[in-house]
Amino acid sequence: MILFKFVCAILTRSLFILVSFVGVWRVTTVKNDRIYWLLTVFYLPLVAEMIITFNWRKGQDNKWFSPSILFFLISIIPSIWILELHHQGNRADNLQCKKLDSWENVKNMVLPLNGTMGMNETLKHLEHVLTSVCPNDWILGLHQVLLILLILGKWLLPLGGGVTREELSQLLLIFVGTAADILEFTSETLSDVKEDNKQLVYIILAVWTWSMLQFPFHLAVVTWRPQNSDEGEGCCNFLLSRHSTDIWNIVESLFIQDGPFLVVRLIVMIYFDVFHQMLVFFAIKNFLVVILNLYRLVVICLDFRPPSSSSPSI
């Protein structure tokens, strides 16, 4: 069992580094400048965390917070920022690229690969295939792999002390829904950006980066429990112990995901004069989620009854 946990911890962090390396390679290829290999310096915190975790925690993750996921985000987010900004400023130069929008296109790209090709020829062909893919498909693929790996990585990482399997399953389900909303936000909203409008791109990427901070934290499912009986007597402590998951879910929705997403979509529609059905639909969806979370918070507060310290005498 210990060996299995060790292998899972190593495998997860290796996948984190591999995907981050692919992102840095893509940046150096697009920018045609080897200085961007310096982005690999962001791997150092992840490697240091891996060594410290194995020595001190036997590979186990923390209860409330996952440093490995945070350092993985730190290692790959700069590459995605650079690729997004480069793509938005060079859309006109990407007309001859190959899109991955059908099986036929994918087969035509991979078809020349066969067993008679040597190793050098195979590597050159793979490099040609990867560099000929449209930048938008490349960036979308990185977003998708990033989100999928965050879910699988959290599943594979050894459980932290105090985290039950039930809480982990709830967390993974939340991650799936969160990842789908974040991917839809970035893909749909960035596609509405007009050329040479880097101000809006910065806003969207900043909100996207902020929303990704949900993944390292586990406050939405891990139940808060008082350390001793004295701590459980206060009203606030009792409220947290009874409704900690609901409260943290509401906070994340209002301030990290649906609230910021709604603000950005309103800015896109009102200030940048972009309007279409899907944008309006998702803006309404974010508005409903915000309103329902506020309603849920009011219900929790109104229904809250602190425990009486002593029974009334007759």
From TrEMBL:
InterPro entries, A to Z? Transmembrane_26
Q: Which UniProt keywords apply?
A: Membrane, Transmembrane, Transmembrane helix
| Membrane spanning residue stretches | 7-28, 34-52, 64-83, 138-157, 169-187, 199-221, 278-302
- Keyword hit for NADP: no
Q: What is the name listed in the Swiss-Prot or TrEMBL entry for this protein?
A: Transmembrane protein 26-like
- Native source species: Triplophysa rosa (Cave loach)
What lineage does the source organism belong to?
Eukaryota, Metazoa, Chordata, Craniata, Vertebrata
